[in-house]
Design brief:
This protein is α+β, with helices and mostly antiparallel strands and about 160 residues long. The protein is about 30% helix and about 20% strand. The chain has a six-stranded mixed beta sheet with strand order 1-2-5-4-3-6, covered by helices on one side.
Length: about 160
């Protein structure tokens, strides 16, 4: 039954209704709560603080998910939008599913990135970081938006065409 519910991609509330509707009338007295509790064994690894939910024990999470792999075989993908910041572990061979390790309701900023990196204990694992150019520039401390000097290596003024023809 749980496989069917997962294949139909039903939310928790509709999954319970679906199970009740497909039962025999004599069985309907039984309360079904399997679908509502499948996350409980993973909650212990996450901590919520100041709008950030982050995995504080990645070793334990990996063991609980039965992916006893070397943690160096993973890479950290960070992405952001106007409203949130997300961090996900991706397996290098893409043979294992991705593991969400952080989510913040705050937008991208150096402060929020520092809080996220400390929360997931990045210095312990030192994964390779993947993301779009905006996130990489933020991590490297580069100025965002239109800059006078487009290249961080040189001081070539991209707007002064008369000086650099």
């Amino acid at each position: 039954m749980n496989d069917l519910i997962r294949d139909l991609d039903l939310p928790k509330s509709k999954a319970e209704l679906f199970k009740t509707a497909t039962m025999e009338p004599s069985e309907r007295k039984v309360r079904i709560s399997v679908c509502r509790k499948r996350h409980e064994d993973l909650v212990q690894f996450f901590k919520m603080e100041r709008g950030l939910v982050a995995c504080t024990d990645i070793d334990g999470l990996i063991q609980t998910l039965n992916t006893n792999q070397n943690l160096l075989d993973w890479r950290l993908f960070i992405d952001s939008s106007k409203f949130s910041l997300k961090a996900v572990l991706l397996h290098n061979g893409n043979t294992l599913p991705s593991i969400p390790v952080g989510h913040s309701v705050h937008n991208e900023s150096c402060e929020n990135m520092k809080i996220l990196m400390e929360a997931i204990n990045y210095n312990k694992f030192k994964w390779q970081i993947y993301g779009d150019l905006k996130m990489i520039a933020l991590l490297l401390g580069l100025q965002q938006g239109f800059t006078k000097y487009c290249c961080f290596i040189c001081e070539w003024d991209s707007r002064a065409r008369s000086l650099h023809c």
